[in-house]
TrEMBL record:
It comes from Pseudooceanicola nanhaiensis. Keywords: Cell inner membrane, Cell membrane, Membrane, Transmembrane, Transmembrane helix, Transport. Residues 135-354 form the ABC transmembrane type-1 domain. This is Microcin C ABC transporter permease YejB. The keyword RNA-binding does not apply. The chain crosses the membrane at residues 9-26, 137-158, 170-196, 226-249, 284-311, 331-357. Belongs to the binding-protein-dependent transport system permease family. The keyword Transport applies.
Amino acid sequence: MGAYILRRLLLVIPTLFGIMVINFTLTQFVPGGPIEQIIAQVQGEGDVFQGISGSGNDAGAIGPGEGIGALGSDSKYEGARGLPPEFIEQLEKEFGFDKPPLERFLNMMWNYMRLDFGESYFSKQGVMELVIDKLPVSISLGLWSTLIAYLVSIPLGIRKAVRDGTRFDTWTSGIIIAAYAIPGFLFAILLLVLFAGGSYWQIFPLRGLTSDNWAELPWYGKILDYFWHITLPVIATTIASFATLTLLTKNSFLDEIKKHYVITARAKGLSESRVLYGHVFRNAMLIVIAGFPAVFVSVFFGASIIIETLFSLDGLGRLGFEATVARDYPVIFGTLFVFSLLGLVVGILSDLMYVFVDPRIDFEKREG
């Protein structure tokens, strides 16, 4: 097993490098980079970004009418006409675009290997500082959504397998499929309308992860306040994941229940609970439990930007969206590097979970 893990770890390096190369190359062809954003700001045509050290201050000192005609039609920035070339050169130097793409990419990767992810172009905060600042929201949504989905779906799937074809199986399947078909953001709006003062009851708060007076509350009050705020976002995030896990659990149990060792165990006089949880559970839950790390990460980093926006939660989803819109490349590539690395490591952990759940699995022999 050690040799298999070592090979998988070594494969992480070229895979991660390939991911970064592809994404870096694609961004070279995307119009509207950070320099264009600043030019639009100076000319009063774009969003206002908070100051950029050096170039940001100069940008505010240069009016759209200064240096008219200084840049001709040969400028590679279409919106830069009327701005002095010194200003554009300063912007390029500030953002590092005065160097060729290959050199920029190699410098970026070298910095990432030293865990230096740089600063945001527009907020002047470190990339990891921004990520850490958004983590509480993403951890809350990802952790509780995953745990609730497993705690509900596994017992429900087992129950449906045991009572396959009955009325219970039929109506629960209908509810699960209907819940899966409802978009998460639409369900979130329904929750807001019903329970957050939209038109009916003001039971839960409308926004944020904690109340304004959270720091003044006692420790038990902080816990209650936290769960009070996170209830509706977690329900909205979790609702669609019930279907996949429940039906996967049911089908896994149905496959195992029909096998000969189950018939033999019943013939020996073992109780139904002993047969299900003593013999069937480990084999049936192999694919469900082993996939827990991947499911957690997918919910953790894939929380809907719409749900975060609806509940005014400032998490990683909004961070990634805003960085993409603003072409904030340090944030885009820094988070891409970290999350891709984490995803690759989680893939290895998923394989280890298979071995932990069922020691009979040996990936080295299967590769051989």
